[in-house]
Amino acid sequence: MTEMMTPRKHPVAPLPEAGTLADEIVKALMFRVGKNPSVATGYDWLNASIKVVRDRIIARWIESTQRTYEAGGKRVYYLSLEFLIGRLMRDAFSNIGLMEEMRDALASLGVDIDVIAELEPDAALGNGGLGRLAACFMESMASVDVPAHGYGIRYVHGLFRQEIQDGVQVELPETWLEHGNPWEFERRERSYEIGFGGTVEATTDKLGRVERHVWRPSERVLATAYDTPVVGWRGKRVNTLRLWSAMPIDPILLDAFNAGDHIGALRESNKAEALTRVLYPADSHQAGQELRLRQEYFFSAASLQDIINRHLGEYDDLRSLPDKAAIHLNDTHPAVAVAELMRLLCDVHGFGFDEAWDVTRRTFGYTNHTLLPEALESWPIHVFERLLPRHMQIVYAINAELLREAREGGLNDSQIRSISLIGEDGERRVRMGNLAFAGSHSINGVSALHTELMKETVFADLHQLYPARINNKTNGIAQRRWLFQCNPGLTALVREVIGDRFMDDIDALRDLERHAEDAAFRERFAAVKRGNKERLARLVSERMGLWLDPSALFDIQIKRIHEYKRQLLNIVEAVALYDQIRSHPERDWVPRIKFFGGKAAPSYFNAKLIIKLANDVARVINNDPAVRGLLKVVFIPNYNVSLAEVMMPAADLSEQISTAGMEASGTGNMKLALNGALTIGTLDGANVEMKDQVGDENIVIFGLTAHEVEERRAEGYDPRAFIEASPELSQALSAIRGGVFSHDQPDRYRDLIDGIYERDWFMVAADFDAYADAQRRVDALWTDPADWNRKAILNAARMGWFSSDRTIRQYANEIWDVPA
């Protein structure tokens, strides 16, 4: 069945005036929320307001779906285990063109829209950049009129809520569904059975030849769809984000319940609910790994069934699937979809292997997001085969075809081992990155540097075998959220001086360049930044009870906590600076506040230890009168999209200091620069292209390049030599290791610091002096406000190229073959 069997025009509801909106809000409050205005809570007003605007969105949603159906064009299906969508109200209200009208209507009722907007839960359905990229892509696909469905998981809790207790990260459930979700629509009619385990049987013809394989799962659950409308800019198109929730086929085993086994009677229900309860279960043990694989197969299988169901409702057979559906794999998490589509084509729809493989490869595209071997997922053969026995057979069959092509292509034995879908080093494992590569017609990196490194490292041999498949699509960000909504002051200022064209064509932001030399404009630009810094300072005061001076340099590093992102380098430099300020009080030090925000994976010991160190260093520095307020360190708990929307506009300095060659792209770097922050960073990921866009003189680059990092490692890097040659680094590491910041447990950081002395895989010691020197260059720039603000304006003006609209148009034209 298709979503709409009978083509029918649905008129778009006209946009109302503010006066009628107020009446509608009151009616929605009474008849759809069930509250009298006199007793309504903020959540009630929020719910009613969303439903009033949602009605307009639904009209355009239906029209968009109908238009796609009637055109008979190609759809994009974006499969991602993460969608870090954050709050949706401002996004939807602004894009549909009702933000100011709703503000006025609510004000007439005595309700402040900014107050109720803060009550909307932040949907933490992602871990970081990958999930936020998926959310920006969904908004951009709607904005540039690409018909698309996003597919993911409706996590009940999503990523954990982070609290900091005595400096330690504590993980708590994120209860984002506590007050319901007025944006979503449950689609019970879109439910599909998903199987696990069991056996595979082969049916044969009269001559004993295998005709068909039949998988008989031992476990089954239902995947039920929940749809959220994704509104494009000015309501041009409304696409669908479809998230799957797991439900048991038999909610309760009555025989067991009646026999007194009340817990056992609910066993199937509990197993099903566990599938979609939490994002990224801890994979440090086999149970967590198994649940992760179950999640990935669950949402991939449900999505493919849904795609095929829609396709067959409109077209005769699945041979036309590559012409009508572009299925995109956002990293390796949905890579099992390659084997699942092969299973559906061969076992359910009667395709031969060769024909199914051709259809599969022409349908899938794959984005790689990392060069870290541990992030290129692989699964132990015994786990994969037990959970997905038929898929294991298909992986072996694909691998046989892949290795045959490799031999015919002249690859040697070492290269063949490298491209095999089965890793033979130690425990035999299924390599999901190789499966995604083999099963896709396009494999893209997410920055120019990352794409070239893919060809040289993780996919070097696959690239030699298929030299036309790898291409680059540098990441981008949705400027509607990351400028228009999160920085209304700057947006209003830009509109005043260059007009509104940039709001529809972000490249027109370049018109701001000519105002960088205008002293009066620089002062107005600085005043907007000051207001944003005051807002962040108030937030820190309210949440943490810490007073901050908005006139200080706001130095911000906000991202997932990981050793390659080198929060540790930043902290060590803070300790070195602390020592210098105390030792040389006569110098004119630049007042600086170092902000950190980010979450560490629950099982990532060193990342959690880095969080503890940041808080220990903050406690000592912030309470030392000898520093005279010249340096403060702040770790803000529970970094998420909503907090980012406050921190991005307030940043003076953006820390993008990953070990070169290890950050695929980054998108926080783009958001911060778009809001007028200068970047201090390595030549890693998209920093390279940002440097090209903003100009060498408007960015602060330091440290080893990606190739220099590899050369150092190959030559036998000795971090101890760098430490002994740097008095500041040596002193800082000794202080941390010796317990200066951990009097209650003097050896708390001994192993962490010893790791720098002995291995230092992430080149903290090698890059420290260059980083410290770069920070002093930043100090010098800060002492010239006119020059600093000129550079900040040019950063903002030259970031239009990093719009996700540009990225999506490139995907559409060069990978998906859809107009945009």
Please, could you describe this protein's structure?
The chain folds into 3 domains: 102 residues, no CATH class; 377 residues, Glycogen Phosphorylase B (Rossmann fold); 318 residues, Rossmann fold. Helices cover 49% and strands 15% of the residues. The strands form 5 sheets. It has a 9-stranded mixed β-sheet with strand order 5-8-9-2-1-10-11-15-16, sandwiched between helices. A 6-stranded parallel β-sheet has the order 19-18-17-20-21-22, with helices on both faces. A 3-stranded antiparallel β-sheet has the order 12-14-13. Strand 13 and strand 14 form a beta hairpin. Helix 11 crosses helix 14, helix 22 packs across helix 25 and helix 23 runs parallel beside helix 24. The chain starts with 17 loop residues before the first helix and ends with a helix.
What is the strand and helix layout of this fold?
Elements: H1 18-33, H2 42-71, E1 75-79, H3 89-96, H4 99-108, H5 113-117, H6 129-143, E2 148-153, E3 161-165, E4 168-172, E5 185-196, E6 199-204, E7 210-216, E8 219-231, E9 238-248, H7 254-258, H8 267-275, H9 286-314, H10 321-324, E10 325-330, H11 336-348, H12 353-363, E11 364-367, E12 378-380, H13 381-387, H14 389-408, H15 413-419, E13 422-423, E14 429-431, H16 432-438, E15 442-445, H17 448-456, H18 460-465, E16 470-472, H19 479-485, H20 488-498, H21 501-504, H22 519-544, E17 553-558, H23 567-583, E18 592-597, H24 605-622, E19 631-635, H25 641-650, E20 653-656, H26 668-674, E21 678-681, H27 687-694, E22 700-701, H28 706-715, H29 719-724, H30 727-737, H31 750-758, H32 764-782, H33 785-797, H34 804-816
Parallel strand pairs: 1-2, 1-10, 2-9, 10-11, 11-15, 15-16, 17-18, 17-20, 18-19, 20-21, 21-22
Antiparallel strand pairs: 3-4, 5-8, 6-7, 8-9, 12-14, 13-14
